[in-house]
Amino acid sequence: MPTGRVKWFSLEKGFGFIANDEGEDVYLAASSLPAGTTTVKPGTKLEFSVADSRKGPQAMSVHIVDAPPSLAENSRVNPDDLAAMIEDTIKILDRVGNGLRHGRHPAGPEAERLGRVLRGIASQLEA
């Protein structure tokens, strides 16, 4: 299996690129990340298979080989900032709840974004 390191990855955009060991850029979709992984940091070493797509090579079946140490996991967000994030999330959840009452489920990208926000808040609370 080819290996490479993450060049960049955007959680908001849902994709990034890997520089494989041959120097070629490989597209990395968030959906190709291992289960339970929502983002990867630049420099993370990955093992993956490659599929040709209309936009060029795309990483599939991605496995994290070596992740750089995370400073963010060892620090907490300022309590006032976390409180503001939770209050904003409550507003979003209220809007989603009202939509559900009217039979409207959140669209795929909106649901995924909300899931990432909730997991991020949960990780801050558990830190």
Automatic annotation (TrEMBL):
The protein's name in its UniProt record: Unannotated protein
A molecular function GO annotation: nucleic acid binding
Domain CSD, first and last residues per copy: 1-64
